[in-house]
Amino acid sequence: QGGNDSARLRPLFADLLRHEGKNASAMQHLEKAVELDDNYVWAWRELAELRALDGRHEHAEQAYRKAVELEPDEAINDGLKAFLLRCAGRREASMPYLERAVERQPDYLWAWREQIEFLLGRQAVGEAETVLRTLRGEDGEHQSARLHEQDEDPQLGGRDHHGRRDRRAAPASGHRAPPP
Fold first, then answer.
1. Which of 8, 40, 134, 175 has the most CB atoms around its CB within 10 Å?
2. pTM confidence score
3. What is the pLDDT of residues 89-117, one digit of tens each?
4. Cβ-contact 78, 46 below 8 angstroms
5. pLDDT in tens, 12-50
6. HEC string of the chain?
């Protein structure tokens, strides 16, 4: 491939491979993407996620830290940290990150759902109901309605599979191509 190799194309290949269940090959493409463009935050985030799924928690944490270094104040980083903790068997430690994620981005539905699932798993039904009432808002309108109002096209609204905003590109399991 030589001069035709592209940091922007490799995550697309990784996306296809991930959907086929070929996570190891997908990781190789993401690792090459960040080698070619060390500032490609989306590739770092996806690499962290795949490494965590592969049980490579220390390496996942390294990729996560690089993503945070590139874009420090993003709700998506809190969601990713929560995901990494869950994969490492430390789901309870993820709650502060999930709470901060929805404070930063109230329409982050994945983070809301994770909180509710965690609380239900602990048999904390009352707390889960409180989170659900908070998600619904005082007017009872579900947060997902607000999510679609904010974006011209809900299919291309700059969100990944967790409902997190990512201005640079789609995640490996997203439904749209990265911007040019």
1. 40
2. 0.74
3. 999 999 999 999 999 999 999 999 999 99
4. no
5. 899 999 999 999 999 999 999 999 999 999 999 999 999
6. CHHHCCCCCHHHHHHHHHHCCCHHHHHHHHHHHHHHCCCCHHHHHHHHHHHHHCCCHHHHHHHHHHHHHHCCCCHHHHHHHHHHHHHCCCHHHHHHHHHHHHHHCCCCHHHHHHHHHHHHHCCCHHHHHHHHHHHHCCCCCCHHHHHHHHCCCHHHCCECCCCCECCCCCCCCCCCCCCC
